[in-house]
Amino acid sequence: MKRTELPRPRIAVSACLLGLPVRFDGGHKQDRFIHDTLSKVAELTPLCPEQLAGMPTPRPTIQLRDTPAGVRLVQSNDPGIDHTDRMREVAEAQARRLDGQIAGLIVQRKSPSCGMERVPVSRGKGLPAVRTGVGMFVRHFAERCPLVPIEEEGRLNDPVLRENFLERVYALDRWLHTAPEDVSAFIAFHASHKLNLLARGTDAYRTLGRIVAGVTRDTLAERRAAYIPRFMQTLGRKVTRGRHINVMQHVMGYFKQQLSPQDKAELLAVFESYRREETPLSTPLVLISHHLRQYPNDYLGSQHYLQPYPGELALRAQV
Ligand code: SF4
Questions:
Q1: Structure confidence at residue 77 (pLDDT)
Q2: Labelling 204: which of 195, 224, 262, 315 has CA 20 to 30 A away?
Q3: Separation CA 319–CA 160 (nearest Å)
Q4: If DSSP codes are grouped into helix, strand and coil, which group holds residue 82?
């Protein structure tokens, strides 16, 4: 599946976050970033697990409930009405439909169906709920589609989590559209993410490099299967300012000889100011890009680290 147009990953989104009136009370929870910004650079696919499970709108509220048989998804005012098995079937069916088609999933926080973490679990009358649950749909979907990055709309307000989520989404999208095809595409995929991986530590880059090394047509399927879960897991690691600076110093090494002493001093001063949290990540990266235009380098030009997702998102001005 080769494509030439700009990447536009497909992301499944809890339908209520897109402004669709699917909530239990007939309302929605439209999210401005998803609706106004993300929709311009990604194809958003609405998904309402409760409607897919056949529940009407409006409908009685449901909740996660701790029972001797484990955590169940039940009607709040009548725990005898149990939606657990039906929701698992919905999640399995959606996983079959969407696996390999979507590069991310954004869900509504706290929902007993869609919430990703810390969803209230009722323990019955007189006992306070505990915030240890995972929405029943997300729980089963994530088990069947472990590569797909999942985030909640609330956490996407955090610039670092948002940057990390989108980096993973765009990387998985590139994988879905290029890397499975042949040996050279697989090797190129790994090489073009070298700096993204180095930002997570040299150990991960080396481990993944060993999986790619010596791959042949005969071993391609097996190596790819070993590679991509580790790759996605690695990208999930948080990148500190210190690690970003290490990577940028590594990049600087490629054109250091051509820089004047003043240019070098300016770059190092900008790195330092980023380290002291006086400037966002976009500031040193803009300067690096400026030097790269002056001193082009094929290897650096292939690196997704320098622009992991469309520049118009401008997220690195906030990280
Ligand atoms: S949180 Fe999930 S299940 Fe609830 S209305 Fe939104 S999309 Fe539907």
A1: 94
A2: 315
A3: 6
A4: strand
Would you give the end-to-end CA distance of the chain in angstroms? 33
Three-class SS state of 104: strand
The secondary structure of 195-231 as a DSSP string is HHHHTT-HHHHHHHHHHHTT--TTTHHHHHHHHHHHH
- pLDDT bin (cut points 50, 70, 90) of residue 314 is low
What's the confidence (pLDDT) of residue 68? 94
Query: Ligand 1: which of 23, 90, 137 to mutate, most ligand atoms within 8 Å of CB?
Result: 23
Q: pLDDT at position 313, please? A: 67
For the chain, the C-alpha Rg in angstroms (whole number) is 22
Q: Report how far residue 63's alpha carbon sits from residue 136's, in angstroms, rounded to the nearest whole number.
A: 10
Q: Is the CB of 22 under 6 A from ligand 1?
A: yes
What are the structure tokens assigned to 261, written together? Answer: 């002493």
Report the separation in Å between the CA atom of 260 and the middle of ligand 1, taken as the mean of its atom positions: 57
Instruction: List the single range of 71-85, 110-124, 138-152, 288-302 with lowest mean pLDDT.
Output: 288-302
Structural domain spans, the chain = 10-156, 158-319
Looking at every residue in the chain, the average pLDDT score rounds to 93
pLDDT digits (tens, 9 = 90+) for 25-78: 999 999 999 999 999 999 999 999 999 999 999 999 999 999 999 999 999 999
State how far the Cα of 277 lies from the Cα of 199, in Å rounded to an integer.
18
As given in the structure block, the two tokens for residue 20 are: 């669709």
> Does ligand 1 lie within 6 Å of residue 49's CB atom?
yes
Residue 94 in contact with ligand 1 by CB distance below 6 A: no
- Taking the C-alpha atoms of residue 319 and residue 290, their distance in angstroms, rounded to an integer, is 20
The 10 Å Cβ neighbour count of residue 21 is: 13
